[in-house]
Write a structure and sequence with these properties.
The chain is an alpha/beta fold. The chain contains 20 helices and nine strands.
């Protein structure tokens, strides 16, 4: 049977009942992920387990490096089976790391492989998995449909033509694959890629940039987009002449940090008002310190496992940013994510400042993100939400993943959720009111997101 059994992580009778009766069979709304829409449109067939389980997965790459595996077997030119063997060498030592659970959930749910992955079982699992990957059920689209997914929201640059999303819709793919507007390249004026990106869009003026963004937001909306996403290392808030800052950058001069804050504030405000006018949801992912290893960044580029948690103060600028939008009655539905768990209570109290009818939880404390999407991080986020707000309004889990077999993370979250709430009930902190409990569990797992995003 293996350790991934039906009551995995469910420590009490109540937790087991809540999970199996209310959570287990709920559909998935994956409202934030990094799946490649081209791979979905082309119904990609994976050549082997290394491509499927390790390709692009910087979570796994980080722990392989920590275990002393040479980069050749991680992102280098080693044979794919050798890379898989190195993962099998690393994994048994990852006790307490969610990757140990995630990997075995992936093997169990998609391949019905219950054996633990070790150096001794690597060859057998490699062969069995690769044999199955040749079947139609293991192409990209089937991997999504088999996970009971209803909606997938990819993450897309404003300049994207969205042709793959259009293709999927025209072909009648049963899963709604929708774009998400991610304008970081048009906002991060302090990066040396900004001017090149703007010129590539034939933009030469500040007003032209705003006009272009407005047009792209409209285009995304026509193609089903209902969410935006912004990655913020720090939360900007500064007033000043954003047009002058833009002109300075386009003239080849790097704006100073204060000027960058002025520009980013203005662009966030501009975009947020466009989102509000279309009833979109704005996501702010706050607190990543990215690309810390210069030699490896120059070799491999971004999103390869060299990011970490930042520790900046975010409360005051975030409050001013949100308040500036609320003052104009143009604050969209907003989800605030923190990469630093020290800020759970900062965001958990911040959301209470800007709630407004008729929305239930108009401003949300986002799911445990990235380094926090493990048991302790999820529980900390859920407890902060419960302690400071109305947990029953939470829109729940997302994959935030590039992997087509990451959907068991929703199962992982649901088991943690039911274990937490089940414990509260068993300790006498909430009555055994199964109608109310079922509403809460099913809301967090699926129904709240469906209503909140309008899906």
């Amino acid at each position: 049977m293996g350790f991934i059994h039906q009551d995995f992580m469910l420590r009490t009778k109540m937790a087991r009942r809540l999970y199996h009766e209310y959570a287990e069979d709920m559909p998935i709304i994956d409202y934030h992920c990094h799946l490649n829409p081209q791979m979905i449109a082309e119904n990609h067939q994976f050549k082997n387990l290394t491509e499927l389980l390790l390709g692009g997965d910087h979570y796994k790459w980080r722990v392989m490096r920590a275990y002393g595996i040479d980069e050749k077997y991680i992102t280098g030119d080693a044979d794919d089976y050798e890379k898989f063997k190195m993962w099998a060498e690393t994994l048994p030592h990852c006790i307490g790391n969610p990757l140990y659970h995630w990997t075995h959930l992936e093997l169990k749910r998609y391949f019905n492989i219950g054996e633990t992955l070790t150096p001794d079982t690597a060859q057998e699992i490699w062969q069995k998995g690769n044999d199955l990957l040749g079947e139609e059920d293991f192409r990209a689209r089937s991997l999504i449909t088999r996970a009971n997914v209803e909606v997938v929201c990819t993450t897309d640059d404003p300049a994207d033509d969205l042709n793959h999303h259009q293709q999927l819709r025209q072909e009648g793919f049963e899963i709604r694959v929708l774009p998400t507007f991610r304008p970081d390249k048009a906002v991060e004026i302090g990066k040396n890629t900004f001017v090149t990106y703007v010129k590539e869009q034939s933009i030469s003026s500040y007003e032209g940039l705003q006009s272009w963004l407005r047009g792209r937001i409209g285009f995304f909306h026509e193609n089903g987009c209902r969410l935006s996403d912004h990655a913020l290392e720090a939360v900007p808030y500064a007033q000043g002449d954003a047009k002058a800052v833009f002109d300075k950058a386009m003239a080849g001069q790097m704006p100073d940090p204060q000027e960058q804050e002025v520009f980013k504030t203005a662009m966030l405000q501009f975009c947020a008002k466009e989102y509000a006018a279309r009833s979109w949801t704005m996501q702010l992912h706050i607190g990543a310190l990215r690309n810390n290893n210069t030699p490896m960044f120059e070799k491999l580029g971004p999103d390869t496992g060299y990011d970490s948690v930042n520790d900046l103060s975010i409360a005051a600028p975030l409050a001013r940013l949100l308040d500036s939008l609320e003052t104009d009655d143009m604050l969209p539905k907003t989800i605030l994510y923190t990469l630093n768990p020290k800020d759970n209570y900062v965001l958990g109290t911040m959301i209470g400042n800007f709630q407004k009818a008729p929305f239930k939880g108009k401003v949300q404390l986002g799911s445990g993100w990235w380094f926090n999407d493990q048991r302790d991080g999820m529980v900390a986020q859920l407890k902060a939400f419960a302690n400071l707000g109305v947990l029953g309004t939470f829109v729940g889990m997302l994959t935030d993943s590039r992997s087509f077999v990451s959907y068991p993370r929703h199962e992982y979250f649901r088991r943690i959720l039911c274990n937490l709430i089940g414990g509260w009930v068993e300790h006498g902190e909430y009555p055994e009111d199964y109608e109310a409990l079922g509403d809460i569990i099913q809301g967090i797992c699926y129904k709240n997101a469906k209503e909140y995003f309008g899906f």
